[in-house]
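Aim 2 progress update. The chain analyzed this quarter is reproduced below.
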Amino acid sequence: MTESAAASSAAPGADGSRGLVLGGGGITGIAWETGLLHGLAEAGVDLTTADRIVGTSAGSIVGAQITSTEIPGGLEELYRRQLLPPADLGDGGVDLASIGLGVVAGFALALLQSRGDLTRFGRVLGERAVRAAERGRTPSIEERYDQVARRIGGLTWADRDFVVTAVDVATGELTCFGPRGQRPDVSLEDAVNASCAVPCVYPPIPIDGPTGTRTYVDGGVRSGSNADLMQGCSRVVAITPADRSVGPMRTAGQQLGALGVDHLVITPDEASTDAIGKNVLDPAARPPSARAGYEQGASEVELIRDLWG
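Predicted structure tokens:
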């Protein structure tokens, strides 16, 4: 489904700069976003040419891949990979992860304890994530790095305005990694692992810095899209597999509307929702999610073309 909104005449970024938001959504989100981007590109609209790209959680992996010059074949090859069986893409033998009822209950409790304060929510949920990892309820950091390396292994930051988001456990605040972000010293591998550290499912990620070691969890703890980082762009397309307004969290459409930016928000249509299924971390749902994204991109290209040009 595609939702659109027009900006006011006072919109920022009147120079015509374009932004692409890649939201969180698990393994199936990676597949769906990749399929959607490939479907659009084949139909003549290449969103990877954006002047700024913001990636959160699953979107950070997709962003790392599409900005890379180290993947021969580009989007076509990335899409082909998403169609492979789990064992062929390195998911064979890996324990099936899920965002179960316990994780959802912890999320809800953290929302209540945060009393509408988004940074407090980040701290509370971050502390729960740290305790879960200490008690052995998540994979080890080494195991998690190995899993992520199967998707971005060997990739480095491209000379692009690409932002990867994560939340600092100690402060609950958003951190923007990337060549032009707050922490240009952090490697792409570390940044993506931090952005994908779903609390109580995967371990929080410690990263050394000039002021010591900071620990980070999923950028989706602040927002499923972090689309408000598009300040300065005049046109934005947000691809959001799982973007909701819950408590103090705001959707991509709400954030972009507040910025006054011309935008489109693309969410899974009915066929894509069915393909994604109930467990967004299930590798078996990856190929159908990619195919559904591809078909959805091809069907919605005209509306997106009107905005993107």
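Residues 6-14 have pLDDT under 50 and may be disordered. The radius of gyration is 18 Å. These observations will guide the mutagenesis experiments scheduled for the next reporting period.
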